[in-house]
Design goal:
The chain has 15 helices and seven strands. The protein is of the alpha+beta class. It has a domain of 45 residues. It has a four-stranded mixed sheet with strand order 4-5-7-6. Helix 2 packs antiparallel against helix 3. It is globular, with a radius of gyration of 21 Å. The two termini are 15 Å apart. About 3% of the residues have low confidence.
Length: 310
């Protein structure tokens, strides 16, 4: 997740559409899979799957290059034809070119850097603007790649426009992965099938049904229209109760942006050493179970400081 500087609501439909296109375009170049995403007026979320290291031959390398640079630019002066000739010559310069391009692939940081930079250039040029567009480095949460953690994170992302009060159903918000999947777009449908594949969802119809059941709850009584945010806070803070998962997902739960690592307790515990070393912490972090409702086996490294809602 990454946010616009000062939290300003700068993106209207045109900007959201351009950012949506870049999210998919850069994913193709980087060789990562967008499972779902959501573009809002001042931030965007994207859930990525990074495949294991794959061999990329020169033909595929140039195909991906042409996705981002169909024509020479002041940043990339060489045309695809020129670069293809260099690779075919297989000189020392060709190997340097391969290394340079491959270093930008299969990496979440490189993906986000490319999306944010490309969109910043486009936005500033089209709005007679200069300077920083994004507030800071993107927030990232490592998510266990199957089961309840992956499905819950995907539902949380797709529900952004519902929490913001823009729509009552995310299928009606064109700038999110779920809406694109419902509309029949191939790549978002593949992402949704992957999210629900461990539930036997090999076809899009079963994946859509499973995702919708999680978003809205299996019973009409779980619908958010019958449980306002104010009422939900009272249930949690004053009555020490638990809300249905479908309702919790419609509330602003910081676990999904501040939790650092999201998955089963075993999965989270497996990364505590690396997390401690990366941040120079003296003591290893605790594995915290998620509170507020029955999240199944979900756990995080960073618990919430005060309350479940941010």
């Amino acid at each position: 997740m990454t946010r616009v500087v000062n939290g300003e609501c700068l993106f209207r439909d045109r900007e959201k559409e351009m950012l949506r296109k870049m999210i998919w375009q850069v994913a193709d170049f980087c060789g990562v899979q967008v499972l779902t995403y959501c573009v809002m007026s001042n931030h965007f979320h994207v859930l990525l799957r990074v495949p294991g290291r794959q061999k990329v031959d020169d033909k595929e390398l140039m195909r991906r290059y042409q996705v981002l640079y169909p024509k020479p630019t002041k940043y990339q002066a060489d045309s695809v034809k020129v670069l293809t000739s260099k690779l075919e010559a297989d000189s020392e310069g060709a190997e340097q070119l391969r290394v340079k391009l491959l270093a930008r692939m299969g990496d979440v940081s490189e993906y986000m850097k490319a999306v944010k930079q490309r969109f910043s250039v486009w936005y500033n040029r089209n709005h007679n603007r200069y300077g920083t567009l994004w507030a800071d480095r993107f927030k990232s949460v490592l998510v266990e790649g199957q089961g309840n953690p992956l499905q819950t994170m995907a539902a949380y992302i797709d529900l952004n426009p519902v929490r913001a009060g823009l729509v009552e159903d995310p299928k009606d918000y064109r700038f999110c992965g779920y809406a694109e999947a419902v509309a029949g777009v191939v790549a978002p449908r593949k992402g949704l099938i992957h999210i629900w594949s461990d539930h036997g969802a090999k076809l899009i119809d079963s994946a859509l049904r499973a995702h919708r059941a999680l978003i809205f709850g299996k019973r009409a009584s779980d619908g958010f229209s019958e449980m306002t945010r104010k009422r939900a806070l009272k249930v949690l803070d004053q009555e020490d109760g638990q809300l249905p998962k479908a309702v919790m997902l419609r509330c602003r739960v910081r676990y999904f942006t501040d939790g650092a690592i999201l998955g089963s307790a075993e999965f989270v515990r497996g990364f505590t050493g690396a997390w401690q070393m990366d941040r120079g912490r003296k003591h290893p972090p605790k594995v915290n179970t998620m509170k507020g409702t029955d999240w199944g086996d979900l756990a995080v490294i960073q618990g919430l400081r005060r309350q479940v809602f941010g």
